[in-house]
Fold this sequence. Notes:
- The structure is a single chain.
- The chain is mainly β.
- The protein is built from 1 helix and 23 strands.
- The strands form 6 sheets. Strands 11, 12, 13, 14 and 15 form a 5-stranded antiparallel beta sheet that branches. Strands 3-4-5-6 form a 4-stranded antiparallel beta sheet, with no helix packed on it. Strands 7-8-9-10 form a 4-stranded antiparallel beta sheet, with no helix packed on it.
- Strand 17 (191-200) and strand 18 form a beta hairpin.
- The protein is globular and about 50 Å long.
- The two termini are 26 Å apart.
Amino acid sequence: MSNCLSLFDAETFSKHLDLELPGHDFGFVVHGSCNGLVCISNSAFMTLESPVYLWNPSIRNLKRLPNSLQHTTVFVHLGFGFHSEVDNYRVVRVARFLCNKSIFGIEVYNIRLNCWRTITTVPPVSNDVNFLQSACALLNGVVYWITKEPSQHSPSILTFDLGSEVFQKIPLPETTVEVPTDVGIQVVENSVSLFQVRTDRLGLYCDISVLEVNTWKMMQTIIFPYSKLAWPLGMEADGRLHLAIKGDNPDHPELVLFDPKSIEIRVTGIGLNCKYLAYVDVYIESLILLN
């Protein structure tokens, strides 16, 4: 969780702007971004009372979403994106209840109507599921989360179609079952990509697989030039990786740009609060008004 949200230049890494919310001293978490809009909250451990915002950095436009229609939860997770078939931006909120006949409560926010709507769709996961990333991945109107259920040996992918409002569960490649890994999901070059970080006595590696019609295709393995922990936060079109690496202070990783072809490492000078909550994505300026 960061004390503020910052926008940096992709080439020079110079800071363009910061976002700080008055009265909120606990930092921010990014849950997703799409077409110049960013979905954020001020808590890594959300409840239905936690405020949720949509932010357009280009025009300094910030909107707090209405309160939830539901009550009494122990777990909340968000997804955000645009679906072309409904021609609308939507936020999906997955809530798990303490005492209720329905284990999950699902709400969908409509940016045009500025309201939440409860739907009856139920995610195909157990009630003790954990979401391993604060942010979702988004492709073609479908949001993707990495989830882990205690009863299962390996994580899986949970998806939600913002148009049809249907959940789907996709297993990870078999290698993730055989070899314990640290996993993350991102969209790279219009493909859902899985990053699996693993170590052995020789070094640190990152296996990258691409999802093709619910089947994983192994694309490449990258060897990290670090003896200390590194974690990929994003990948550019030319194959360079944004990595969070542990520096002198293990609680505050640093952001570097790594080229696996030339083994060149570029220090950005950007400090991070936590590798799991750090967020890197391409930003495109937008004139969309949220109010």
